[in-house]
Amino acid sequence: MCDLMKASQPAEKIGKMKKLRRTLSESFRSIAFKKEDSGFDEICVTKMSTRSCQGTDSVIKPLDTIPEDKKVRVQRTQSGFDPFEKPASQVKRVHSENNACINAKSSSASKESPKLRRHSSPSSPTSPKFGKADSYEKLEKLGEGSYATVYKGKSKVNGKLVALKVIRLQEEEGTPFTAIREASLLKGLKHANIVLLHDIIHTKETLTLVFEYVHTDLCQYMDKHPGGLHPDNVKLFLFQLLRGLSYIHQRYILHRDLKPQNLLISDTGELKLADFGLARAKSVPSHTYSNEVVTLWYRPPDVLLGSTDYSTCLDMWGVGCIFIEMIQGVAAFPGMKDIQDQLERIFLVIGTPSEDTWPGVNSLPHFKPDRFTVYSAKKLRQAWNKLGYVDHAEELASRFLQCFPKNRLSAQAALNHEYFSNLPPRLWELQDMSSIFTVPNVKLQTESGDSIQVCARRNSHGKASCGSKH
Q: Which amino acids are annotated catalytic?
């Protein structure tokens, strides 16, 4: 009976209505305390229920004519009656007129109200839940940046290790745009070579991004193995980097901050793109972007010269720099002063551009031909001799390090380069979430007689310094 009182009822029937209320009240009280016959442990008839029989929220008005000697109060709403926490299918019929309303309550509504149960259960509010700050335990501090601190943590939900990126919120400034961007982008990216965002926790003081825990990063890994990495490991790391980039580029997302510190390395050798704070979704038609992106050493010449109209080719220059650094053991273009110095280092190897080699270069804001020494292009192995020791490595690197952006090789095309021809064909057939190390005989080689070990300086999701040696 979805409404116990009708305004149109004659005054002479009030007595009958009171009698009916008493009958219903006694019936519900009987059901509430019948444990055996009701089919479940105990039905809790609460004093205030906020759900109607349709499952929508409404204002609760208790009946004011229920006798005070009754221990169980019956509530009603404008749309119906909802005294039970358990599904209505488990409740015995108590009156023919209220069956439709009670039976309309679905089992899903009961799951949405765990706090109405008397006995604890796996879904009790005291149990750890995703989205709650107290569901994670901080174990140690990993690093600190300008707006975030990263901790190693442990999930109380499943016991797994996590990385907690705690972003401080300032009342005047609000949430840093980089944090919003990183969270919004990573929520939709599911790939073995992209760091996984598990959870987001928002409080008044902080925004916490909960990532999978990855032991170290490429910068720390190279610090631990100076002089260049094992050629086979370089190939596997580069393949994974290109695989992750191809995935995001196909979704029109640019990373914009590729550097070894932002490439996480697991204890099994899995490489994962991380720190998407500067990443941007590339919209169509094209918009201009800030040229204050990418760490200086890995910043392409077009951005250094002030270009704000770029696409996925921006990331590919960084890939070339990282590729050379893994092989040679030193940064490809370690500018020590400013943008001018960085450009000079690039032009010394790649050659100083002109309108012939780079159409449109003269129109870039910071390009003044008289400011730069005119250099001719060199063979890359003249600058980085170890490129000559690996088949097809020099040619691939040269395809990345093109001054004219449109000449740079894409991530997808690079995966099919001859440099990777000796890898198992199954690597190109993997699903997005499958690791390359699920393919038989694909594994990292030991570096300088050492087994693959976790770096002593823990990863901090791109915030650690890359200067010191281990």
A: 257
